[in-house]
Design goal:
Elements lengths: L3 H10 L3 H11 L2 H6 L15 H11 L3 H10 L2 H10 L7 H10 L3 H10 L7 H8 L5 H17 L5 H5 L2 H7 L5 H15 L3 H15 L4 H14 L2
Helix pairs in contact: 4-6, 5-6, 6-8, 8-10, 9-10, 10-13, 13-14, 13-15, 14-15
Length: 230
């Protein structure tokens, strides 16, 4: 067991948030920053660091929840992306999830936190149900990005919890906003790929959506059917 002196030294050795932001700034390039516009990602508070570099930095830093909270508060795009790889899923609270979700201004931050952090928390399904009914574009997208992430990663979840999400998908499928409808489709397809039972239920819903009078619902249904028939 390490001594108190050793533990203190290790704690002091951990980089502070200012040092990490400076590292991100050094890693950024104008070419990467300029290219963000092609993917509908705002670059006004970004350095232009690749996702691969952010992941590598996250691995070096390890899980440090207090540091993750500080990184988020900087407001920098890359620092917020880094929180997905630094925050501890066991320490994430529902209030933190709500607070960060309200700050979303692009799909990349939304999807990265859902796919690499929030799907490992015990709060995922509760937040899916809550956020699916919200009006804000990226909060609503987060519901279905998180659903897709859980469907892929949580091998122990039973079928019933996913079947209960299908009405949420059907209700949200009429939302014609680009990032919402793509998130809804992602969630629907994710459920359908878990097993044959869920795929059967998803195909029934997707067919119904594909015949809807609502353009967004038709798109979601057809997109899901096209993917599931591959």
């Amino acid at each position: 067991m390490p001594s108190r002196t050793t533990a203190t030294a290790n704690k002091k050795a951990a980089p502070d948030v200012e040092t990490i932001v400076a590292t991100l700034k050094r890693l950024g390039t104008k070419a990467n920053r300029d290219g963000m516009a092609r993917y509908a990602i705002p670059s006004d508070k970004a350095f232009g660091v690749s996702v691969g570099q952010i992941k590598d930095l996250g691995k070096k830093l390890g899980r440090n929840h207090e540091l993750a909270l500080q990184l988020w508060e900087t407001g920098w795009y890359e620092a917020r992306m880094l929180t997905a790889f630094v925050a501890d899923p066991a320490q994430v609270t529902p209030a933190e999830m709500d607070r960060w979700c309200k700050d979303f201004d692009n799909w990349a931050i939304c999807d990265t936190l859902c796919f690499h952090l929030w799907d490992h928390t015990p709060h995922a399904f509760r937040k899916i149900e809550q956020w699916a009914k919200r009006r804000d574009e990226f909060v609503k997208r987060a519901a279905f990005a998180l659903l897709a992430s859980v469907a892929l990663h949580d091998k122990k979840a039973n079928d019933d919890v996913f079947l209960r999400c299908l009405p949420l998908i059907e209700a949200a499928a009429i939302d014609n906003r680009n990032f919402v409808k793509k998130g809804v489709s992602w969630g629907l397809r994710g459920i359908g790929k878990r097993n044959d039972k869920l795929k059967t239920a998803v195909v029934v819903l997707a067919k119904r959506l594909s015949e809807s009078d609502e353009p967004a619902a038709r798109w979601v249904g057809k997109d899901a059917l096209r993917d599931l028939r591959k």
